[in-house]
Please model this.
Amino acid sequence: MNPFTRFTPRRRNQTSAIKLYGAIVAQARLPVFYQELGVPDRLEGRFLVLSLHLFAVLHRLKAEGGDALDLPQDLTDRFSTDMETVLRPRDRRR
Model:
């Protein structure tokens, strides 16, 4: 592996996507949605809140354009990977 590949724009975008996705997940897990706003604290409710937060961020990134072109795709890929892990049937995890 070339030591300079970690400085490429694609690599920086993936790192940014990981950090941003973590912030989106943290925001979506705030108790206010489940305790005060009545969102069911189950898989479906958490998926809904996370999806809405992700949509808002993707919409904002699309509006900004420019340097953020790869970031929405990287975020979407991260979300897909996360959902595959969470939603995978339990018997396949063993």
